[in-house]
Design goal:
With 402 residues, the chain is α/β, with parallel strands linked by helices. The protein is 35% helix and 15% strand. Helix 6 runs parallel beside helix 7.
Length: 402
C-alpha cells in the first residue's frame, strides 16, 4: 500500500463570518448607533431565489412563518439564512430558509467557538469574509448616508481586528472592508488597518458591476499603491461584484452555483491586461472560492492573445511581457474541491494555490477537511502539500507561520 502524505495543519483563506447581532450597536460611535444596522426577530415568509444583486425575495411578519433574525439598515431588510450558516445541518436541510442565532452553530458568529470548530477540523488559521456587508462591503456602498456608511465600515474593521481576531492568538486572521465609494478613503482605511496588523482587504472582482470605475481607468491606483506599500493582499470573493453568472433566467440556483467561477475568469483576464500588475509589481491578488481548474487555459489564451493580437488589442505598450508572467508573480487561486485543477498543478503553479474550508457555507468541508485534503492531495510530495494547504497562504497573508 502506497504511503500517503500527512496533511499539515491548514490555513484556510476563505471562510465566512455571520456577524453577531451586537456588532454595530457595540462598535459604532454613540451618535450613529440608533441608525446603524440592528437585528430583530421576525416571522419571515418563503424565501424565493431571483438571482442578480438582490438574489432573494421574502416578506416579513407572515402569519405562522418561521422565525428568523433579520438585519435592518436604512431601507435594507436582510434575513439570516440557513444555507449561509449551514454547519451542523444535514446536507438536505441546508436550505435558503430563515434562521435565528439560537439555531446556528455558535462558531458562525462567536470567535471562541469558531476556533474550537477549527481545532476539530485540523485548521490552524482562518480568514473570514463578511456576510451582512456582503463580500466586499457592497451593503455600505449602496447606502444613502455615506457618513454613517463610513462609520459602519470602520466599526466593522474595528470589530474584526479587536474582537473577532483579538484574543485568538493568531488563529483568526483579520480581513478588512473599504469605503468603495471614495478611493482616498479606501486608501486611508487600508493604511489604518495595516498599522495594527491587518494585511488583507476585500475588493470587487468586477468593480463596474457595482457602478464603480474600472481598474483600467487608473482611479484605483491609490488603493493598489497602499496595498502594495503595506503588503496587504487584495482578496476578491466570487459574488463580490453583486452579479453572479447565470444562463437561462428561470434556471435553478444550482446553475449559478456551477458557474460561480466565471467571474474569477473575467476578473483575472481584466487584471492581466490592465497594466495594474505592471505598475504595482509587489501587489498580491487572491481569488477566493473560484477553484483552480480553469486557470491553465485562461493563461494560455491570454498569452496567445498578447502574442498574436496585442497591436489591435490595445495592450502592445501597456503589457511588456506575456500576461502569465504577472499571474505567476502576483496572483493566487483558491480551491476546496478541484481534482482537475490538482492534475494540472504544474500549469496552475504550485506557488500560486491556496486552500479553504468555506465554513460555515454549504460548500464547507467541515468537519472532515483533513480527510478531504488527504483524498485529493495525499499522493503529492510533502513539500507540495505544505505549500498548498499553508505555505502559500502564509506568504500571501504576511503571516509569521511556518
Amino acid at each position: 500500500m502506497a504511503v500517503r502524505t500527512e496533511i499539515p495543519r491548514i490555513i484556510s483563506v476563505d471562510d465566512h463570518l455571520v456577524e453577531p447581532a451586537h456588532l454595530w450597536q457595540s462598535w459604532l460611535p454613540e451618535r450613529f448607533k440608533e441608525r446603524g444596522p440592528r437585528v430583530e426577530r421576525r416571522r419571515v415568509g418563503p424565501i424565493s431565489y431571483i438571482g442578480g444583486a438582490k438574489m432573494y425575495t421574502y416578506e416579513l411578519d407572515v402569519e405562522d412563518g418561521p422565525w428568523g433574525d433579520v438585519w435592518f439598515y436604512e431601507d435594507l431588510v436582510y434575513p439570516n439564512k440557513r444555507h449561509v450558516a449551514a454547519v451542523g445541518f444535514d446536507r438536505d436541510d441546508m436550505e435558503a430558509v430563515p434562521i435565528t442565532f439560537d439555531e446556528m452553530r455558535p462558531g458562525c458568529y462567536d470567535p471562541k467557538a469558531r476556533v474550537e470548530d477549527m481545532e476539530m477540523n485540523h485548521v490552524e488559521a482562518s480568514l473570514s469574509f463578511p456576510t451582512f456587508p456582503r463580500f466586499c462591503g457592497q451593503t455600505f456602498l449602496e447606502a444613502d448616508d455615506k457618513e454613517l456608511a463610513l462609520a459602519c465600515v470602520q466599526a466593522y474593521n474595528d470589530f474584526m481586528i479587536e474582537e473577532w481576531c483579538g484574543d485568538s492568538n493568531g488563529a483568526l486572521i483579520p480581513l478588512a472592508i473599504i469605503p468603495l465609494w471614495d478611493v482616498e478613503l479606501a486608501k486611508a482605511e487600508v493604511e489604518r488597518n495595516a498599522a495594527r496588523g491587518c494585511h488583507a482587504v476585500c475588493f470587487s472582482e468586477i468593480a463596474p458591476n457595482l457602478g464603480l470605475p474600472s481598474i483600467h481607468t487608473g482611479y484605483w491606483d491609490p488603493f493598489f499603491s497602499a496595498c502594495q506599500d503595506t503588503n496587504t493582499a487584495v482578496c476578491m470573493h466570487i459574488g463580490s461584484s453583486s452579479v453572479m453568472p447565470a444562463a437561462s433566467p428561470d434556471a435553478p440556483p444550482a446553475v449559478a452555483a456551477s458557474l460561480s467561477f466565471n467571474n474569477a475568469i473575467a476578473s483575472m483576464s481584466d487584471f492581466l491586461f490592465s497594466g495594474v500588475l505592471v505598475r504595482f509589481p509587489q501587489l498580491k491578488l487572491a481569488y477566493s472560492e473560484g477553484q483552480i481548474g480553469w486557470i491553465p487555459y485562461i493563461l494560455e489564451r491570454c498569452d496567445d492573445v498578447w502574442s498574436e493580437h496585442r497591436a489591435w488589442g490595445g495592450v502592445r505598450d501597456a503589457i511588456p511581457e506575456p500576461p502569465s508572467t504577472y499571474y505567476y508573480r502576483q496572483i493566487y487561486g483558491c480551491f476546496f474541491r478541484d481534482n482537475h485543477g490538482l492534475k494540472s498543478l504544474d500549469e496552475v503553479g504550485v506557488d500560486n494555490v491556496t486552500f479553504e474550508t468555506d465554513y460555515p457555507h454549504t460548500d464547507t468541508t467541515w468537519p472532515h477537511t483533513k480527510k478531504v485534503a488527504e483524498d485529493m492531495m495525499g499522493h503529492l510530495p510533502a513539500d507540495v502539500v505544505h505549500k498548498l494547504v499553508r505555505g502559500n497562504a502564509a506568504r500571501l497573508l504576511n503571516l509569521d507561520i511556518g
